[in-house]
Amino acid sequence: MPNLCPLCGQPLPKAFDDEKLHAKLDKLTAAATQLERRKLENEFTDRLSAERENARVKAKMEFEKRITKLHVDKDRQIRAARESAIAETIKKNALEVAKARKEASDEARREIRFVTQHARMESEKKLSTLQLVREKEQVRHSSEIAKLQGKLEDFSRKLEKQTGEQLGEEGEIDLYSALRKEFVTDRIERVGRGVKGADILLRIMDGGREAGCIVYECKNVTTWQKAYIAQAKKYHTQYDTPYVMIVSRAFPKKLRGMCVMNDVPIVEPRFAIALTSMMREGIIEIAKLRLTKVGANEKAQELFVYVTGNEFQTRFRDMSETVDGLMDFLRTEKNWHENHWAKESDLHARIQKRHREIDARVRVIVKGTEKLRPIAVADGRRRA
């Protein structure tokens, strides 16, 4: 079989020595093979280095990833443990607070119960004392009531013995005295008992001349009678004056203070002087006009109509109520001042008492030394 070329596979000449050819080829390819091997070894070495580096990088990344995960897991575990510990602490503290509150509440209840019992005992003690005082006061009050009842019965018996005429005379005397005290320049007359006429006449004097006359019918009674009006109206003609008034403690139903019935004014005794003063001023002014008798009578009638009219009555009542309110206010203010002065005096007395106690105690402590200067008390005075 002919020799074939190892490269191209063509038949070789017969004279061509196969061994020499192979030896030559081996020689030629040895260097190339060595170079290729060296190249392959270098590539393998480089690739191996690269693979190692990649493996190292991957291993490092994986390690760092695992480390990070471990840190995250650790932080999560620490946080969970911390939250659990905090929750446990809060729960424990809540239990302790609840326990403390319960103990405090129990203590407060015991304290309140103790204070309440003590206060109840003190109250019962004070109540017993007050009850004894009250019983003593009741006994004293009953005794005083019995005495007053006896006096009232005596007065009632005396009053029953008095006639209506005597009672009327008492009211008449009171009004007569008040008129004389208030109007000293006028002539005031009492009509005697048994004489037909009014009770009191007030003759108003303007200088030495009589300016007019006011007639008073006094009724110191407890029950009003219509006959009083008819009786008073007769005095207009009897004394030739339009100025007639009834001074009474009793009034027609639902009326008080001042009212007018059938052109006759009816006033309470306390308002009689005020009404007289107003009428008197008008009467004097009419007299100063120097009118004829007819003109003077017309003016007097006009004044009387005004006095008995609704306008005057309304304003007079308002004035009277205002005076009553003012008197009530003055009484209230007087009582307040008296109470205030009493309290202030009591406080000063307490200050002086404590001052004397302190001064006496200090003198006992420093007995034998020089005499102490007195301590100044709150009202600016000193006590030895």
SS field, number of helical segments: 6
The 3D shape can be described as: elongated
Return the CATH architecture of the domain at 164-308: 3-Layer(aba) Sandwich
The CATH topology label of the domain at 164-308 is: Trna Endonuclease, Chain: A, domain 1
Gyration radius, rounded: 65 Å
- Report strand %: 5-15%
Q: What structural category arises from helix and sheet content? A: alpha/beta
CATH C-level label of the domain at 164-308: Alpha Beta
What kind of assembly state do the chains in view correspond to? single chain
State the total count of DSSP E strands: 6
Sequence stretches where pLDDT stays below 50 over 5 or more residues: 159-168, 369-384
How far apart are the termini? 168 Å
SSE topology sketch:
Blueprint: H1 18-161, H2 164-182, E1 187-190, E2 200-206, E3 209-219, H3 227-238, E4 244-248, E5 258-261, E6 264-267, H4 269-288, H5 293-307, H6 310-365
Parallel strand pairs: 3-4, 4-6
Antiparallel strand pairs: 1-2, 2-3, 5-6
Write structural notes for this entry.
- The structure is a single chain.
- This protein has 384 residues and is α/β, with parallel strands linked by helices.
- The chain has a domain of 145 residues: Trna Endonuclease, Chain: A, domain 1, CATH 3.40.1350.
- The chain has six helices and six strands.
- It has a six-stranded mixed β-sheet, with helices on both faces.
- It is elongated, with a radius of gyration of 65 Å.
- The N and C termini lie far apart (168 Å).
- The C terminus is likely disordered.
Defining key terms:
6 helices, 9% strand, single chain, 384 residues, alpha/beta, 6-stranded mixed β-sheet, Trna Endonuclease, Chain: A, domain 1, elongated
